Amino acid sequence: MWTYLVILFSSLLLAGVFVRRAHLLHKKANTTAESPGEKCVDDEIEEITSQITEKKTKKDMNKVEELCKKGEERLKAGKEDDAIKFFVQALAIDELHLETQNKLAMLYMKKQMFSSAAALFRNLGKLTGEALHYSHLGLALFHEQDFEGAKNAYQKALDKDPSRPQRYVSLAQVYRSLGQVQNAVIAINKAVEIDDQNLDYIFLLGEFQAELGNKKEALEIFTRLSKLDPDNKDLKDSIKLLRSDSN
After folding, report:
1. What is the rounded distance in angstroms from the CA atom of residue 154 to the CA atom of residue 134?
2. First CA to last CA across the chain, in angstroms?
3. Nearest alpha carbon to residue 82 among 137, 136, 9
4. pLDDT of 10-41, one tens digit each?
5. Which residues lie closer than 8 Å to 96 by C-beta, 6 or more apart?
6. How far apart are CA 119 and CA 96, in angstroms?
7. How many CA atoms lie within 13 A of 163 on its CB side?
8. To the nearest whole number, what is the mean pLDDT of the chain?
């Protein structure tokens, strides 16, 4: 029981930190909107970040490092709930500590606390602009069944780094969950273009074609794959099903 209370308290504390920061950003954004010619919102965010960083004293930063170190030690010892507590305390002092945000977000993912993980990855994406953080955000939102949010997150990740085929696969699965199978086909085709040796990607393309009712295309894909992987039971079953539907 105490374990769950600690996690709940930590999550509430972390939420308070980011709500306070969101309020500052919102206030700054409104000021920008009322004053044409002022800096854009991104510049305002950068300015706020700089102001917050400047206010950190050496004592504060040493405390943050101490708490992070304790969190890492607890994490290595398998005491994940204690690690969460220390990481949250560190972020309460310095909410812009990127390494701690990332470690805590990954820990939340491991513990299937997807809503908390999404909040952190969303913030990390805004702060760093890195594709990896948007990709993790997409996964967290997918688990939360926020498929529209997941779609937008994966699209941002791919806009920033279109070289990773797995992200196209993830986006394809999101489209599938949204019932947009045609878009899923487009996304999985991108993955196949990047890595045409991955049989799993090609198999998924066949599944999407079958779902669209394109049985001929799906059968051609599965038949071609069966020659490369003759012992694959899923392929045999898919071919058998498609042939029976065609008769």
Report:
1. 6
2. 59
3. 9
4. 555 455 555 455 544 444 445 444 444 445 55
5. 49, 52, 53, 127
6. 13
7. 4
8. 85
